[in-house]
Amino acid sequence: MAYSAPISPSLSFFKNPQLTRFSFPFSPLYSRPRIQNPSLLTKNKTWSSSVVVAATAAEKQKKRYPGESKGFVEEMRFVAMRLHTKEQAPKEGEKETKAPEERPVAKWEPTVEGYLRFLVDSKLVYDTLEGIIHQSTFPTYAEFKNTGLERAEKLETDLKWFKEQGYEIPEPTDTGKKYSQYLKDLSEKDPPSFICHFYNIYFAHSAGGRMIGRKVAERILDNRELEFYKWDGDLSGLLQNVREKLNKVAGEWTREEKNHCLEETEKSFKYSGEILRLILS
């Protein structure tokens, strides 16, 4: 499967460079010498062509995409980090802070009602992802069954606890429903893009998501740690296992398909950001 979609401006560093041939200057101060041996001309042409081919091959061999030497997961991580703000990721973030959820978590003013909307929409998204993975017979998705990163059941437990505390559990918002449907559509027609969302959702939650959960719990839940932020087993080991599976799957893709996957990162951040913003609603 190959994609012809152009690389977006924000990912312009993935464009292939224009490879140039070697050229040799000709000085007008010297007249063209008379060829004494015609076979020498043929040999020179052959040698010149060989130089061009060798130079082009060497240039292609040297071309590396950011993170490529460590595997495709590192390429995805590199692109994702660029879409963080400097406050979120001081060393790698490049995005200007604009949206409320992009401000430091310490400056947030979360509410229980908003947090519940966030949890409900998150559950819908994880239900969708995990349903697609577990029900699909597509080999690419089969790699990601029962990774240990699944969150839907954990969220079910948390929402049950909130209900026991007397809180009313809301219905999913239009934001969550829209993202859920988008993931379903991608899974059927665009596996590389779907894998991009899979990676960003699970890996972001295991990193920044945990920090957000801890800070919100300090503000509105008396430091209660929700099941959403707990994993059975060693999290670093679970993540490494999924990294290896992602690299294996991407190893079957063309460079064009890989770039297509990387371009989807912006949409993944857009949808996830809209759901995260619910905490502040």
UniProtKB/TrEMBL annotation:
Output the Gene3D superfamilies linked to this UniProt entry.
Heme oxygenase-like
Instruction: Give the region (Disordered) as residue ranges.
Output: 84-104
User: Where does it localize?
Assistant: Plastid, Chloroplast
**Quick one: where is this thing mainly located?**
plastid
Kindly give the InterPro entries that the UniProt entry links to this protein: Haem_Oase, Haem_Oase-like, Haem_Oase-like_multi-hlx, Haem_Oase_decyc_pln
List its EC numbers: 1.14.14.18
What are the alphabetically sorted keywords of the record?
Chloroplast, Heme, Iron, Metal-binding, Oxidoreductase, Photosynthesis, Plastid, Transit peptide
Task: Return the similarity comment.
Answer: Belongs to the heme oxygenase family.
Q: What is the protein's name according to its record?
A: heme oxygenase (biliverdin-producing)
The organism encoding this protein is Brassica rapa subsp. trilocularis
